[in-house]
Amino acid sequence: MPSVIFRHFLIQSVIVCSAFFSAHTSAEEKSFSVAYNESWHPFSFRDENNQMSGILVDIIKEVFETKLNTPVEFYGYPWKRVQHNIEIGVHDALVTTATKQRLAYSIASKESVYTLEEKAFINRNSRHKDKLTSLTLENISDLKNYNVCDMIGNGWADSFYGRHNIDIKRFKDINLCFRNIAFERYDIAIHVSAAGLSLLKKEALTDKIEMLPVIFDEVPFPLLVSKKSEHLDILPKFDEAIRAFKAEGGIERIVDRYTR
């Protein structure tokens, strides 16, 4: 009888130890998960196979897989749910601006993943081309002399044009704004450079509209890791890896996939 009890005890001990080490190993090997806006072309969106794709997705994928040798998974949701899932720890990170509200539940990388650049788009044959190409932040008030358009719901545009007391026409989407510039009904739009170039490519408007080189604003997007993530210690390694990736021209190479 004692031997039977001993064998039973031994078996139970082995099961408990196996479960412990299995759980410990699984935690160590758990993939890093990143949540994205599922409909923000060309930065993050669902492709024809319903997989997450885009500039921000590709950058993280290449940095984690080729520089950090860390498995990474991508998830797409409506934007509000993305932020909520990081706040409650469903996923490890998101890539966006580091606002005070977001920093209450996340830690930001020191290096940006990507920086949005706001640049001007005009008709290649605009009768105002000489003056429009000379626009800078210093003489931005001159925009009051031209027909400016953007899209409804663009918070950056509302803030930027509001600060400078510039009236603009807001269309339901940026496609309509660009098409009106192509047909010279409107003169100029200031928009995120990669998004604008991607749209011109998609709508076959590159022969009608050009992007000017002046940067009117920059918005850095760091990696924001949830304070509830098991991977907070990855941030210093990520900063080093993304710096190396940028130095190799990795960002430009990925942006070109979606804009050229």
From TrEMBL:
Coiled coil: none annotated. It holds the Pfam family SBP_bac_3. Residues 31-260 form the Solute-binding protein family 3/N-terminal domain. The keyword Transport does not apply. The keyword Signal applies. It comes from the Bacteria. Keywords: Signal. Belongs to the bacterial solute-binding protein 3 family. This is Transporter substrate-binding domain-containing protein. The lineage of its organism: Bacteria, Pseudomonadati, Pseudomonadota, Gammaproteobacteria, Alteromonadales.
